[in-house]
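--- STAGE predict ---
source: upstream dedup step, 1 unique chain passed
mode: sequence only
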Amino acid sequence: MTMTVSTTPIATDELIAIKGVSRVFPKANGDDLRVLEDVDLTIRSGEIVGLLGRSGSGKSTLLRIIAGLSSPSSGDALYRGKPISGPPKGLAMVFQSFALFPWLTVLQNVELGLEALGVDADERRSRALAAIDLIGLDGFENAYPKELSGGMRQRVGFARALVVHPEIMLMDEPFSALDVLTAETLRTDIIDLWVEGRLPMQSVLIVTHNIEEAVLMCDRILVFSSNPGRIASEIKVELPHPRNRLDPTFRKLVDSIYAHMTRRAEPKTTAETGIPGTGVGMVLNPVSTNEMAGLLEALAAEPFHGRADLPILADRLQMEADELFHLAETLQLIRFANLSEGDLLLTDAGKTFTGLGTDDRKKLFAQHLLTYVPIIELIRSVLDERPSHTAPSVRFRQQLEDYMSEDYADETLKAVVAWARYAELFAFDENADMFSLENPE
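--- STAGE serialize ---
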């Protein structure tokens, strides 16, 4: 059974136009949190476009605006020249989670979109079977989601999106919930079908934080910066399909994107501390101290000897780029490592740390936290000054929320608690929601 392609891509046909789009959300203190700022992009027929950026850079927010699930605070979002107000009929979406109805069979799940469009039963069945066959699930029409592997369930998600013959397929990190091998197989199958012209859509827009995935799949990559989300650069990928990850040109492009995404903007001096690019209002990622120590040890050992190319390090440690970025930037924050043009380098303090025993590691870590992480220095100072040597976390949470969203404040405090416990700087009672000094002098 084959699936009929409803349209022929035309490279000059503009489908989506995003013009000066910004998106803000209100914060608890009455200020606005700006997630997207002045974003411009176009999507034309015949191309796969990737939105590549760190977690929290606004990629998924932009995708929701394009899908008609959210509205811009300012600017214009257009589909075929008309404002997007509600989900456009020519778009279909594949989500990170499989989002299948467990009480429906594969065939019934795939038919749902057609049923909502009022397609009659015979055509629904015919088109659903064709989509199931195309995506590699022939023979599983009557299976229920619980009987399928994760990769097969995501194939059902693709079939459900394809069956409505969309002009644009929107993908929100569709492979991130799958194991490495399953994701690679599904990714390759989708690209093969696209290259062969067997997919019933004109364009694909994919959100990802996986650099190699973007280079492997996309014709254009829009790299997002964060806080607020902006398009920092546009990269054309002119490699023919199928693309070889080991090709020197492929590796060079991946390296250049790593370098771009780890390049720091010009620092701004914080009035509170005078420290360039830092301050009490800095968002912290709650990476574990064990992972920090493990990365430092890996960096110090063979074959890196204190300096590693990030793509090679990510591959060797089997880490996603976003996860590695969080770790590397935390080590840079506390001056145990430096990021430079896509490389991670141990500092003298980082080298010293790897050669110390457990207690001495904790002492060095504590010194660097107090020196380079202002929120931790602030909490410790307040605890030292108060006769009770205690302070409620809400006192610091409210201060953080003057600078960031509630979610980011929660993440920052999680990092503070975990790092301070390891360094034995102060304790935190979750039930009382209270910081304290365990052994006040």
